[in-house]
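Handout, page 2. Input:
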Amino acid sequence: MNKKTFSRVVISTLCVASLTFSAGAFISARAAQAQSPSPAPVAGQPVDLTYASEKALPCVVHIRYLQNSKIQEVTMEQDPFSDFFDPFGMFGQRNQGQNRKRKVQTPKKEGSGSGVIISSDGYIVTNNHVVEGADELTITLDDNREFSARIIGTDPATDLALIKVNGNNLPAITIASSDDIKVGEWCLAIGHPFNLRATVTAGIISAKARTLGQNGVESFIQTDAAINRGNSGGALVNVKGELIGINAMLYSETGSYVGYGFAIPTTIMNKVVDDIKKYGSVQRALIGIQGQDVRTYLDVMKSSQKEVDLGTNDGVYIANVVEDGSAQEAGLQEGDVITAVDGHKVTKFGDLTEIIATKRPGDKVKIDYIRKKAKKSVEVTLKNEQGNTKVVKDADMDILGAVVRDINEKEKQDLDIKYGLKVTKVMNGKFKERGIPVGFVIQTVNETPMKTVSDLSEAVKAANKSKDPVLIIKGLYPSGKKEYFTVPLSE
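Output:
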């Protein structure tokens, strides 16, 4: 082989090698691009949200709500002119100043919302207001499969509910920590607004730890991604398609989207779900203070022509310390300013709410605070609503050790009453301990009328979670003699 021919062979070989390397690099790059999630946004560059959408959409379900028609007894106001036209009761029995009772049939109610599959075995998170009072729940997946769902547990304070369908290998969403999100980053709201299937809207995180004064556990993620009726319970996801919040509500004077929506952070959601699974109800820890954002407090003082220097412009101002609460026990006082919990900075009340919402009674937290401009810290042991650190489980009728039923029409006539629950069996339990006999008719529990067995069940649950877990039961013996019993639910 001469020198010229050799050169051509070498050049050809190098070209082939170069092409092979280039093709391999191209294939590797494409494979890496296909396998890797949506890259982090680069300043000044557009964001591709298709990966997040494709990943999260199959995990968001449509929820159809049905409440059956029921017969209910309602109070009708007495006609103020009835006695004027019939002063002697000639046209019927006079009402003697009392409102009339009337049975009405409530209409059948239907509604819809969204939910998020959080585990492949069928657990779904949604809003409490989406499922509250439902007799039937039908779940439709993105692939049009339908399931009936049952409610595992609800938490009105956070507006969260855990429901379940009987299914396996369902598409479960990846859950990220809402602590890691930043104001200004992109997000997607996914749900089924207005019964429209599989709707995705895009926006940014516009605020964190937002409170709206709804008297619940509030620390919302605020977003300008459109959230409308039916989006409730759907997913708020990041650019990787990971869950960062459960869509809860929109802020609007018209009822339609006008700029802002709000989602419940996954830090709170995870705690609620874990508690419902483990205990049947949420174990809520209380710090035992009433207060407000420092900036709000300073603005109020300025409007009152008062100059106040707290030593900081951020934090939570303690306006009141609850008697016998966690804060009082630890020595916190009115006028102190909480600035951090367990090393997490607290700039407003929503920050404090979110941190405490992830804790359970008995947990210890380190509170950094300012008192008279001096920085201090203290360890606080959190308590529950009853003022102790015990686990509070949902109490049910079993704790009473009794069987009750609605009284019938004859019993109503015999006792001259409109409603009540008759004790038909007494076993070992609270009723036997307090001497409540078979035949006793319960009319009120803690001043609430007992018209159905479910009324008693709800009264037991409410009392068990209160600071004073006691039932005050008022009713009648079969003879008509009135009596009341005090039934403590705690040991």
